[in-house]
Amino acid sequence: MASEWCIGIIGGSGLYEIEGLEDAQWIAIETPWGEPSDEILCGTLAGVKVRFLPRHGRGHPISPTELNARANIDALKRAGCTDIVAISAVGSLREELEPGRFALVDQFIDRTFARASTYFTNGFVAHVSMADPTCERLSELCAKALTACEGKVAVGATYLAMEGPQFSTRAESRMYRQWGADIIGMTGLPEAKLAREAELPYALVGMVTDYDCWREDDAVDVTEVVAQMQENGALARAMVVKLIESLPKRRKASPIDTVLDAAVITAPEEQDPEVVAKLDAVGKRLFAKK
Q1: Which domain holds residue 81?
Q2: Predicted structure pTM score
């Protein structure tokens, strides 16, 4: 497995660039799954390879439902990423997770319904485990980096992924709290599922912008959300730099690096060559063994 880090950063609302990259250049990457949200900004930071993708595209022209998450993850894999840190604006479902706080996600509840959520379709079926959907090692490194930047951090948050682009009704918001969700957003899934299928350790840093509408007389206001996003964005950028600077010199192998070894269920003689061809990046390591 790769012993050298190549960190993919997926920037969500409020994070559209990475500062301080050396030899930075935007590179267009084609994928068999369509176009990713944007070109990928490639460079190095503190001697570490970094690949940055603005999730909604520069200028935020792409809505959550229309995001091509399969192309995004595939493109980052093609760009050489070993790990992915996703940064995303979220609403809070808990009083103690106030606007301005950052939350490291360790679980998801999926309420999306209009998005392609897997690379493995008819002709090549695989079932990866999502019991622990984020990378503990990467999440801990992000939490330490945020703390070093004097950010307020919560760990172990459950993220409710909703379809959008509308915000929740009060009834939905209160129901999600009863389900045990802590934060709510529109982009964490299927992104995390696809990263797992691509054998990429994935951490999600949620930037709390507002309280969701479960509180009496509160409603989500886009103007307030954007203002808080801008404030959170400065700290998120500092966190990324601190994270990169603090990475261990050598990347130790992760169990996620080889998750497909125990996931593929389609017999070799029944695997569709056209489907396999589309998996040339996602399943590169798996196919290289044959």
Answers
A1: 6-288
A2: 0.95
Bridge pairing between strands 40-45 and 48-54: antiparallel
Cα–Cα dist 65/69, whole Å: 10
* Choice among 110, 210, 218, 261 that is catalytic: 210
Helix, strand or coil, per DSSP, at residue 269: helix
* Distance (Å) of CA 147 to CA 74, 151, 206, 209: 31, 5, 14, 18
Please check the confidence at residue 1 and state whether its pLDDT lies above 60: no
Active-site entry in 212, 217, 261, 272: 212
pLDDT in tens, 246-272: 999 999 999 999 999 999 999 999 999
Does residue 1 lie within any of the structural domains? Answer: no
pLDDT in tens, 170-208: 999 999 999 999 999 999 999 999 999 999 999 999 999
Check if 212 is active-site: yes
Is residue 263 included in any domain, yes or no?
A: yes
